[in-house]
Write a structure and sequence with these properties.
CATH class of the largest domain: Alpha Beta
Number of strands: 15
Number of domains: 4
Distance between the termini: 89 Å
Shape: elongated
CATH topology of the largest domain: Nucleotidyltransferase, domain 5
Structural class: alpha/beta
Length: 422
Amino acid sequence: MDKYTIINMKRNGVSSRSIARQTGMNRKTVDKYWNDYIENQRLLEQEDDPELIKKLQEEVSSEPKYDISNRVPRKYTDELDGFVDSVLDEEAEKNRLLGNHKQHLTCVQIHELAISAGYDIGRSTLSDYIRIKKNKRREAYIRQEYELGDRLEYDFGEVKLVIGGIAGTYHMAVLASPAANFRWAYLYTNQKKDVFLDSHVRYFEMIGGVYREVVYDNMKNVVTRFIGRNEKELNDDLIKLSLYYGFEINVTNCFSGNEKGYVESSVKKLRNAIFSKKYKFDDLESAQAYMLDRLQEINKAESCIEDEKKCLLPYKPPYELGKLTKQKVSKYSLIQVEDNFYSVPDHLVDEWVKVKTYQSEIMVYSKSRMVARHKKIDGSQQMQIDIYHYLDTLKKKPGALKNSKALKSRAELKTIYDTYFT
């Protein structure tokens, strides 16, 4: 609202209080506009000096000027400043205890706390000081440089894909070497522990050696629980993996993505470079194969991984991740692994077999000989059947073939049966 409008409203008989209410200005400011205008008009009527008249005219037509050089905040006192510091300190402690959360105090809520504590200050004024304080608390970061073979950074990143016509969220396990400018990834359906461990083993096997240090954030696959302010209990399986391969585990501070900034940026880079143009695939295997091709193209142009391979710790055979269990074969020649069912040869009905469960497959052994191998089902209460496991039974009971689950599990055989035998 400019000076002209306020003067015009006063000329039309509008009170200063009403103008202040309509414009949002302080009533004293409105009065100052009007009083200065009246005084300058009076002086103009009395003045004869051209220079002084010109000066008065400028004052009448210009906005009033205020000397703010010596102003000090009258309501934002040292006591209130200490109160705000204590609130922000409590917020920092909350962040440490709760981890990633959405319960941050807003400036509005901090203002409510200040008013409740007896302070008299406007919300916008206090918000300005809060923002200044938060900016001062921001850290300065020191650029890091690493030697080849010293450091590998690890993180997960989500990617949206359409697999088999169904849109879903998938997970990239990203491993990145800042010294070699090398980025690699594996695509999974989840971020569970078996996926986490599998990605390490596959990477070390592919690269042909081991880094001296692997850096993680505070994901649950790394940190089992927090003890006190600074202590962290590491996951037992990760400890075993590090002891076998010989790398040191480095866990960043909470909310300090900059401490593994290379892999943080690598997640975004790979997600965009690989899946921005192509995101529809017939199956997960096709998506994984496509990602592998793109990774090779990206790293061929940008990395010096061949030089880094010479600096790695010695290669070790793949760490055994298979979970060994014993299962009894049901009368339908099925075993249960987790929440799903898999077929085994029908001569093993009612016998006990050993099962090794991996991240992506299961292997079944009887008397130290592998008798069945299945792709692991991603889901629950599902069944995977190999019709060849039922050949002996079908020879004895050929009538059971027509409506059998075994026949329906192989679409090509079902088609042949329907075409030539019905």
